Amino acid sequence: MAKGMDLSIRKATKYYGSFKAVDSISLDVRKGEFLTILGPSGSGKTSLLKLIAGFEEVSSGAIYLNDQDITKKKPYERDIGMVFQNYALFPHMTVAENIAYPLTLRKVPKHEIRERVQRVLDMVHMEHLGSRYPKQLSGGQQQRVAIARAIVFNPPLLLLDEPLGALDKNLRERMQLEIKHIQEKIGITTISVTHDQEEALTMSDRICVMNHGRIEQVSSPEELYQLPCNRFVAEFIGEINLLGGEVTKRDRDSSVVRLLDDTSVVFYAHGTKPEQEKVFIALRPENIHLARESGEFENTLLVQVQEKIYLGESIKLKAKTAFDQEMTVRVPVANAAQLAIGQEILLGWSRADMITIPYEADAS
Ligand code: ADP
Ligand code: MG
After folding, report:
1. d(Cα 239, Cα 144) in Å, to the nearest integer?
2. In a 3-state reduction of DSSP, which class is residue 84?
3. Chain Cα centroid distance, residue 69
4. Residues near ligand 1 with C-beta < 6 Å?
5. Residue 1 — very low, low, confident or very high, per pLDDT cuts 50/70/90?
6. Would you put residue 324 in left (φ > 0), alpha (ψ -120 to 50) or beta?
7. Rounded to the nearest 5 degrees, what angle is found at the Cα of 9, between the Cα atoms of 6 and 14?
8. Which site among 68, 203, 210, 223 is 20 to 30 Å from 36 CA-CA?
């Protein structure tokens, strides 16, 4: 396994009967890293986490934790901290007893247990609630206790499976930051699973995007957003405009892309890969501007306004190109105030804000 890696997954595959839920996944997680596995429902996220935890056995492949092959080990032998969505607190135990449980199992002396429980209670801001029972706590507080219980025995790895899924939006956002702070404070290597892209972007050092049991891309949040490697990732993270085109000319660091729709519209793109012929140009809505004239930007395109959606800090415009493709643009409120539905406008953007990705007829 690679040096300096905490967790190393080598070609892990999981079949349920004849169905392949995890398809030859290889992934290294660095010490102290917060890695999020992001993907649609059914993409194999929980299955992958269960393989790491030992709740399911790999059909083939191997898993290493701190240089040790743990592939065949039982869950309790792996010593991993876990917060699973359905991994509830013990209802008949107090908060303090719940948190103490992993330490009791490990036969830690009583006085040390008391000390360590108090320390993690402080960490999750529940210092005065140790004697409560789970049913006397709010959803957010219960999740805090679950996290405290998962980290109290200093595991080398923390696994979180949609830990905030049941919470409402405001509380979820607050808890995201709280978990991130705790994770940074104790420096614990963490793998979190979510289908919520905002959660992934907020919390992660790196994000691993999964689809159909496979990894599509592993990158920092910034890179994933700015340089998605394919159509699935581009469309899964944020909003994006994709226009099919053909590379007609290529220089060292830029290329000319002609749209596929029998139009003569030509764009100047940045960083097109040598093997790419047919491409999508991919453009985020916030990188497209209203242009006064065609010389104002490296790329311009005439469109017709279809819809204006007020978002508070900006306006989202839905527009249609001459070749009938819908585009989404996000512009400051003041710039869009005068625009009428049906009006023709010129959109502009610079080549640095546009990338090309492989052309695919349909995302799967
Ligand atoms: P996710 O967590 O990304 O939603 P899961 O890992 O739970 O995805 O499931 C991936 C696929 O594997 C789904 O199609 C699911 O129905 C299937 N699956 C999960 N667990 C089992 C199981 N124990 N037996 C059979 N199929 C399963
Ligand atoms: Mg799941």
Report:
1. 32
2. coil
3. 27
4. 16, 19, 21, 39, 41-47
5. very low
6. left
7. 145
8. 68
Strand positions, DSSP E, the chain:
5-16, 19-30, 34-38, 60-65, 68-69, 81-83, 157-161, 189-194, 206-211, 214-219, 241-250, 254-259, 266-270, 278-283, 289-291, 299-310, 314-321, 326-332, 344-349, 354-358
Mutate which of 18, 47, 195 to test ligand 1's pocket (most atoms within 8 Å of Cβ)? 47
Ligand 2 centroid distance, CA of 42 (Å): 7
Which pTM does this prediction carry?
A: 0.90
DSSP designation for 315: E
Place of tokens 């690679």: 2
**In Å, how far are 82, 111, 151, 158 from 186, measured between CA atoms?**
16, 22, 9, 11
Query: What span, in angstroms and rounded, lies between the C-alpha atoms of 99 and 117?
Result: 6
Nearest to 241 by CA among 305, 317, 173, 326: 326
Contacts of 58 (CB under 8 A, 6+ apart): 12, 13, 14, 22, 51, 71
Q: Average model confidence (pLDDT) for the chain?
A: 91
Report which protein residue has its CA nearest ligand 1's atom 1: 42
Would you give the DSSP letter of residue 269? E
How many Å is the Cα radius of gyration of the chain?
25
Mean pLDDT, residues 241-253 taken together: 85
Strand 60-65 and strand 278-283: the pairing is: unpaired
Q: How far is the CA of 44 from the centre of ligand 1 (A)?
A: 6
Domains of the chain are 7-233 (3.40.50.300), 239-358 (2.40.50.100)
pLDDT tens-digit readout, 155-172: 999 999 998 887 888 888
Q: CB–CB of 146/140 below 8 Å?
A: no
Residue nearest atom 24 in ligand 1 by C-alpha distance: 16
Per-residue pLDDT reduced to its tens digit, 103-146: 999 999 999 999 999 999 999 989 999 999 999 998 889 989 99
Residue 307 Cα, ligand 1 centroid: separation in angstroms? 39
pLDDT digits (tens, 9 = 90+) for 80-112: 999 987 668 999 999 999 999 999 999 999 999
